[in-house]
């Protein structure tokens, strides 16, 4: 069996996870800019490669198909790329293979947002554009929100973003990552 050497921390992809509408894309773009790295939004990459929007893919091919495409892309990006900032769709991290490759090869940041903040501030902005929210009552969405927290709890670092602007959240992530690099990989 091929022996895997651990990727140096400074070269690992930085991966943002969290519930839909938490700001993974906006914050990821800011982190990428601050670290002079490329940013990949997994949903946008799926849309680009398959020539259809995520809602179209859900409608035409079904959620199971989307989850397979999503999983394969994330496994590929985590295994074959370095030095990237990746933002994952909110449901991606529910898949065990996705968690495994992200935690093994990347540095995973959980963007943590309370249910109250999410419901008041984020839900109105995304309710019409996320197929997973379609035809669900608020109680069902709340259930989904809390069900997913146990998967999101498997991360390397967490940023509570309730009261933060995207710029402040990005700065916290960058400060934390630089601290980690300096402590665990000094003199590089
Ligand atoms: C999903 C979240 C979406 C997108 C798809 C499914 C989910 O991404 O991947 O609509 O299951 O939570 P965002 O987290 O960027 O909204």
TrEMBL record:
Binding site for Mg(2+): 25
Residues holding substrate: 43, 67, 90, 148
SUPFAM superfamilies the UniProt entry points to: P-loop containing nucleoside triphosphate hydrolases (SSF52540)
Keywords: Amino-acid biosynthesis, Aromatic amino acid biosynthesis, ATP-binding, Cytoplasm, Kinase, Magnesium, Metal-binding, Nucleotide-binding, Transferase
Enzyme class: transferase
GO MF term list: ATP binding; magnesium ion binding; shikimate kinase activity
Binding site for ATP: 21-26, 130
Co-factor: note: Binds 1 Mg(2+) ion per subunit.
Pathway: Metabolic intermediate biosynthesis; chorismate biosynthesis; chorismate from D-erythrose 4-phosphate and phosphoenolpyruvate: step 5/7
InterPro entries registered for this protein in UniProt: P-loop_NTPase (IPR027417), Shikimate/glucono_kinase (IPR031322), Shikimate_kinase/TSH1 (IPR000623)
Pfam families, sorted: SKI (PF01202)
Function, as annotated: Catalyzes the specific phosphorylation of the 3-hydroxyl group of shikimic acid using ATP as a cosubstrate.
Name listed for the protein in its UniProt record: Shikimate kinase
UniProt organism field: Geobacillus thermocatenulatus
Gene symbol of the encoding locus: aroK
